[in-house]
Amino acid sequence: MDNKKQCSKCKEFKPFNEFDRDETSKDGLSKICKDCRRKYLIEYLRKKRETLSKKYNKEIVNKIMGQKIWVGMTVNMARESWGRPDKINTSVSSHGVHEEWFYKNNKTYLYFDDGKLTSWESF
Predict the structure, then answer these.
(1) Which of 70, 1, 74, 7 has the alpha carbon at shortest distance from 36?
(2) pLDDT of amino acid 1
(3) What angle do CA 49, 118, 47 make, to 5 degrees?
(4) Contacts of 73 (CB under 8 A, 6+ apart)
(5) Is the pLDDT of residue 110 over 90?
(6) Exposed, middle or buried by CB within 10 Å (0-12, 13-18, 19+), for 44?
(7) What is the residue-wise DSSP string for 25-38?
(8) What does the domain layout of the chain look like in residue ranges?
(9) Which pTM does this prediction carry?
(10) Distances from the Cα of 55 to the Cα of 62, 69, 77, 80, angstroms
(11) pLDDT above 70: residue 114
């Protein structure tokens, strides 16, 4: 069993190189093998596309699945495309609600007015 690890999903013992790195685990390897992770991601993306197709037209679904952003998209579309932001700053005035969303990984600020994306800034 040297140089092998058991996948927590399929329960098979596989060589270490069949697991992704995970610095947070004791052995430095993911709990799930690459094959099981790939199968999970394929199913996750299929379900996500199916769910989005019930809410949006095909063009918008393709943009969200491609992790695109565009002026006019809603806050929900942005969250479905890029996930939850790391930080949100909100201000309310007589002109409406203004939000600044910050994504650390993308190094980008998204700017929303009344729930619609008006611009973004990458650095």
Answers:
(1) 7
(2) 56
(3) 10
(4) 63, 81, 116, 117
(5) yes
(6) exposed
(7) STTSEEEEEHHHHH
(8) 1-54, 55-123
(9) 0.80
(10) 13, 17, 10, 12
(11) yes
Asked whether 74 and 63 are in contact (CB, 8 A), the reply is no
**How far is 24 from 29, CA to CA, in rounded Å?**
8
pLDDT of residue 106: 87
* Structure-token pair, residue 12: 């098979």
CA dist., res. 98 & res. 118, Å (int): 10
Terminal CA-to-CA distance of the chain, rounded, Å?
A: 48
CB 66 within 8 A of CB 59: no
What's the CATH architecture for 55-123?
2-Layer Sandwich (3.30)
Tokens 């037209």 label which residue? Answer: 57
CATH of domain 1-54: 3.30.60.130
Rounded Cα gap, residues 38 and 17, in angstroms: 15
Q: What is the rounded distance in angstroms from the CA atom of residue 74 to the CA atom of residue 61?
A: 13
> Which residue shows structure tokens 């002109």?
95
| Dihedral angle computed from the Cα positions of residues 115, 79, 106 and 24, in that order, rounded to the nearest 10 degrees | 150
